[in-house]
Structures are given as C-alpha cells and as structure tokens.
Design the sequence.
C-alpha cells in the first residue's frame, strides 16, 4: 500500500469562495489561513505523513492588485507569529521554500525566526511556498551549480533545489486542472488529485478520502508491475 509521505497542495479558490458569499476576496484568504492550520495539525498527527508543502504565494501572485498583495503579506506575518507556539506544540518544523528576498525585512525576519525556532522539531515538516515558482527554483539551482567542473547530475540538481524531496500526492482545490508552476521537478511521479472544492471549504474528511484513494493506486514509476 502506498504511503503519502509527502503531500503538496495548491490551495486555490479563496477569492471565489468570498465572492460567492458577497464578501471581499481577502476574506477568502483569511478563511483559507484557518484551513491551513487545520490541515497542518491533521497531518502532524498522521503517522505516514512526513512533509506537507503548501503553495501560499507564487512568483506570479505579485500581479494581483496591490491591496490584495499587501493583505496576503500581513496575513502571512500574523499567521506565522500566531502559529509558532502551535508548531512547537505539534512538533512541526517550518521550512519555507521560495525566494523570500523579495519580501519586507520584517516578514523575512518573522519567516527566519519561525524557521530557526522550529528547527529542532522532528515531526511533520510544513513547507510554505513563499514567492515560489518552480521555474525560478530550478533556475536558481542551476545558477548555484553553474561553476562546477563536472556535468550536473540529477542528484546534484535535486539537492540544489529549495525542496529536494519528491512529492507523492499533489492535490489542487478550486476546480482547475493545472500545476501553476508548483514543484514541477519534485512531482515527476506524483499522483495528482484535483477537486472542485474551494480551499476555504476543504476539510479533513476530504483529505482523508483522497489519501485513502491514493493508497489504492498502483504506482509503477515507469517500470512494470
Ligand atoms: C488562491 O486563491 C490562493 C492563494 C493566492 C494563496 C493561498 C493563500 C492562503 C491559503 C491564505 C494565506 C495562507 C497562509 C499560510 C497564511 P485565489 O485567490 O487564487 O482564489 P480564486 O481562484 O478563487 O480567485
């Protein structure tokens, strides 16, 4: 039976969730942050799950209206500050991925602090993808390796990525069927699950159902049964 050791989620649908209820889009992000907390806590208590990687802000999200971007930045900062004791309580290690140099000094400091203060935790690793794009991640990895004398191997490139861990199960909420520049290298053999539920409505029982389906899938990694 497969084990979903590394689950990655594209959390889509916050804006539509809010609009359907006649609320401002940012209310959807607020509701989405609560689901991030619930799902992280669930995963931290699940014996098979080692890693949860969540797409929180993409390299393309800067194109959104300024006020929405500012709101997301503030939400992220307050989320991390509030969650630090929860990470510690649940033995969750926070390992951000993405190029955080584009963020404000204060947000970078908060990200760094939560990372350092949870570095000793050896339970679930929660990675938030922050100013993350897979193409950008791969390019930065190639640039790190460009002066090496020998040919670059798969293992070398993989280790130079922000996230050097293969994804087992990749979930996208919100109804679209695309990867949106998320963990492209790491998802080479991931099982992909797309669901119509908007992220703020995504529940633990849905995640449990997807994990159950995943355990039944026959994964061949290009080989034969
Ligand atoms: C997509 O919804 C979601 C995002 C832009 C990023 C995810 C952000 C959160 C879940 C909230 C903040 C997270 C943390 C960790 C504090 P969308 O706005 O693209 O939705 P739409 O497709 O309905 O417009």
Sequence:
């Amino acid at each position: 039976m497969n084990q979903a050791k590394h689950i990655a989620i594209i959390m889509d649908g916050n804006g539509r969730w809010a609009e359907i209820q006649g609320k401002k889009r940012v209310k959807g992000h607020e509701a989405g942050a609560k689901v991030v907390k619930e799902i992280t806590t669930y995963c931290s208590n699940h014996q098979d799950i080692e890693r949860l990687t969540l797409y929180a802000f993409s390299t393309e999200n800067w194109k959104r209206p300024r006020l929405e971007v500012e709101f997301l930045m503030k939400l992220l900062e307050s989320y991390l500050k509030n969650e630090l004791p929860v990470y510690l309580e649940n033995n969750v290690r926070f390992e951000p991925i993405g190029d955080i140099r584009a963020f404000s000094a204060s947000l970078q400091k908060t990200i760094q602090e939560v990372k350092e203060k949870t570095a000793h935790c050896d339970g679930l690793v929660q990675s938030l993808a922050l100013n993350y794009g897979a193409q950008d991640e791969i390019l930065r990895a190639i640039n790190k390796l460009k002066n090496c004398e020998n040919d670059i191997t798969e293992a070398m490139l993989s280790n130079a990525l922000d996230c050097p861990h293969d994804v087992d199960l990749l979930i996208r909420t919100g109804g679209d069927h695309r990867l949106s520049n998320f963990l492209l290298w790491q998802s080479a053999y991931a099982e992909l699950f797309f669901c119509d539920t908007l992220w703020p409505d995504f529940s633990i029982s849905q995640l449990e159902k997807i994990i159950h389906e995943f355990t039944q899938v026959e994964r061949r990694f290009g080989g034969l049964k």
User: Anything to note?
Assistant: The pocket of farnesyl diphosphate is lined by residues 11-16, 29, 32-33, 36, 56, 61, 75-76, 79, 128, 174, 199 (CB under 6 Å). The radius of gyration is 17 Å. The chain has one domain: 6-133+167-216. The chain has a mean pLDDT of 96.
